[in-house]
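Retry 2 of 3 after timeout on previous attempt. Resubmitting structure tokens to design endpoint.
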């Protein structure tokens, strides 16, 4: 992704769980249904409209690309978060929170 929505690994893990739950929710299923209807409409427009300029076709193709990306957004966000979790070294700051005792023996 071109942006980072999570501040740290803890947020990434929570976000992955939330996005996976979102994909199973009735609300997301309604969003997918609406997106599918929009995609069908744009496909139909591409097939039936008489175009006088290439810009008109390109605009509809851009709409299709955006709708497909929106439909896959939760999956893309999960994949991106998982990749970043795999790339980031483990956070071991907790182990070294206290500096070693340097008092004279």
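Retry 2 succeeded. Sequence:
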């Amino acid at each position: 992704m071109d942006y980072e929505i999570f501040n740290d690994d803890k947020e990434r893990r929570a976000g992955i769980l939330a996005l996976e739950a979102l994909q199973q929710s009735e609300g997301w299923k309604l969003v997918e249904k609406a997106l599918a209807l929009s995609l069908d409409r744009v496909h139909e427009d591409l097939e039936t409209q008489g175009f006088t300029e290439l810009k008109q076709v390109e605009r509809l193709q851009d709409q299709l690309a955006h709708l497909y990306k929106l439909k896959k957004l939760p999956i893309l966000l999960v994949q991106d978060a998982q990749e970043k979790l795999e790339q980031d070294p483990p956070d071991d700051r907790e182990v070294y929170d206290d500096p070693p005792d340097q008092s004279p023996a």
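Attempt log closed. The chain has one domain: 9-88.
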